Amino acid sequence: MSAGPPVVVFSVDGLMACPHSMTSEVESVLRRVTAKRLPLVLFSTKTRAELEFIQQGLGLRHPFVCENGAAVYVPTGYFDIPVPTTRVVPGYEVIEFGRPYAEVVDALHRTARSLSIDIVGFHDMAIEDVAVEWRLPLLQARLAKMREYGEPFRIVSGNLRHRQQLIRALWPAGIACTCMGQYDHAGAPVDEIAGIDLLCKLYRRALGPILTLGIGDPIRDRRVLDRMQIRIPAPLQPAEVTIPREAKRPSGLGEHGDGVGWAAALRRLIHLVRRHRPDLPHGGWA
Q: Is 211's pLDDT higher than 80?
């Protein structure tokens, strides 16, 4: 392989399968990524705890962006340059863009009460309830409840007018809502791109010129992928959007959580990296 800029890979909500239940095909692809020492940055709607579980199972130690851009977690000592840290937690330097979870939950419930609208959020639900509603194993449901910045919730009545009233009333309190099927997600109005841009700057300061590759759904993840020099499509499969009660499961999963679509995209990535880097198709879909 000819010399060229280091490659940094951003995977948008694609590595969402339980790492202990992945197929041998996916595990083989991951071993090849590890052998090539490619930084693999996960960008996800999932919590820090969920992503730590995934990284531990896959043997990864790279920065990740959790809760749809609310925070960037950089392993301590990962970069040999200063990181603009918001706070330090064991094992990480953290750059936060979202508001603390307790503030979000308090504003959400206070506003709902003022409108006499009954809501149910993750804060109110038992682990078993989250597992049933989101079709998750109990362990993953426990990790999904360990939220730090945003709150998935639903309006008990299912009344569209109540939903619109609540969303309008939350905005003056600094809380934005994102539709997630029957659930909405309440949190600070975070620009999901900010964490991606920050990490790219840190990699460039640490490594010099880099080549950024993004893996994700061409439609749903387009805004994030547009920040990448090369974009590799990993479209959702029909089974990946068949869910109960119209509640949106974290994307990138097959019905059995085997990550096959993501693995196919990653194989394409390895094929590109194997080629001479000057031949990589900058600025488009690979």
A: yes
In this structure, are strands 40-43 and 7-12 parallel, antiparallel, or unpaired?
A: parallel
Tokens of 276: 């001479």
Question: CA separation (Å) from 84 to 67, 153, 187, 220?
Answer: 19, 32, 22, 29
Q: What is the pLDDT of residues 235-270, one digit of tens each?
A: 654 333 323 333 333 333 333 345 666 667 777 776
Q: Which domain holds residue 53?
A: 7-97+191-285
Query: Do 88 and 204 belong to one domain?
Result: yes
Helices and strands per DSSP (H, E), number in the chain: 9, 13
φ/ψ region of 96 (left if φ > 0, alpha if ψ in -120 to 50, else beta) reads beta
Q: Considering its fold, how many domains does the chain have in total?
A: 2
Asked if residue 154 and residue 168 are part of one domain, the reply reads yes
**Is residue 1 assigned to a domain?**
no
Residue 14 C-alpha from the chain's centroid: 8
Looking at the fold, whether 12 and 121 belong to one and the same domain comes out as no
Last residue of a domain, one of 187, 218, 237: 187
Q: Where on the phi/psi map is residue 13: left (φ > 0), alpha (ψ -120 to 50), or beta?
A: left
* R_g over Cα of the chain: 19
Tens digits of residue pLDDT in 106-129: 999 999 999 999 999 999 999 999
pLDDT recorded at residue 173: 93
What does the alpha-carbon distance between residue 176 and residue 87 come to, in Å, rounded to a whole number? 24
Choose one of 187, 203, 218: the last residue of a domain: 187
pLDDT greater than 90 at residue 19 = no
Question: What one-character-per-residue DSSP string does 201-262 give?
Answer: HHHHHHHSS-EEEEEE-TTTTHHHHTTSSEEEE-PPPGGGG--GGGBPPPSS--TTS--HHH
Q: Residue 278: what are its φ and ψ, rounded to 5°?
A: -60, -20
- The amino acid occupying position 158 is G
The tokens for 43 are 């960008």
